[in-house]
Specification:
With 214 residues, the protein is an alpha+beta fold. The chain contains eight helices and six strands, in the order H-E-E-E-E-H-H-E-E-H-H-H-H-H.
Length: 214
Amino acid sequence: MEDMVHKLGQSLDSLLDDGFKYVKSRFALVKKLKDGTQVIAIDLLPTSEPNRFKLAMHAHVRLNVLEDQYAHFHPFLSAKDRKTNPTLALNCDSLFSDKALTQSFHVDENRLEEVATIYAKAINDDVLPFFEEFYSVENLVASFEQADPKLWITSDRHTRTLVLLSAYALESNWGEFDKVSSEYIEYCDKPFAQAYKPLAQAVIEGLKKRRRKV
């Protein structure tokens, strides 16, 4: 299975011309930029039918300026994970305009090039525009500041909160920082979210230290 993922990743690498390189140790196409990274993580998930797989792809945006704000306060990230932790992660199924690509398909060694060609086009058409728009602190914040959660780029409330808290701390916008902090603590007090309360408390208190230094 891993060999097939690597061969698919290498084929995609040869078909994409936007600076992405396949990195075997990460099972991902990686584009390194001076202020962060863009990543397309790849996996083949087996189904109940022989030789039929679901191609799982996730688009990761890492903005160093935001990660440098909060990541070392994050209690669930190891020192190693902090170096590659994505600021935003999105299932490419939500980006693909051709929804047939979100379904499982028959694949073997002989079809990998064909599959790579199909998905390379989808990446060019649907995933790269996502990177272009959201590899931006300004655009991420604008998305997450919208009142309607349905309009956020992701429904993940933890991602939203970490982005906004980091951006507001960076801007010394402590009024909005306090507002989002209170909302997050209130959310984490709910029974289904209490596992995240240590995260909320650690990041909020850690970022507050920056206010005292100003």
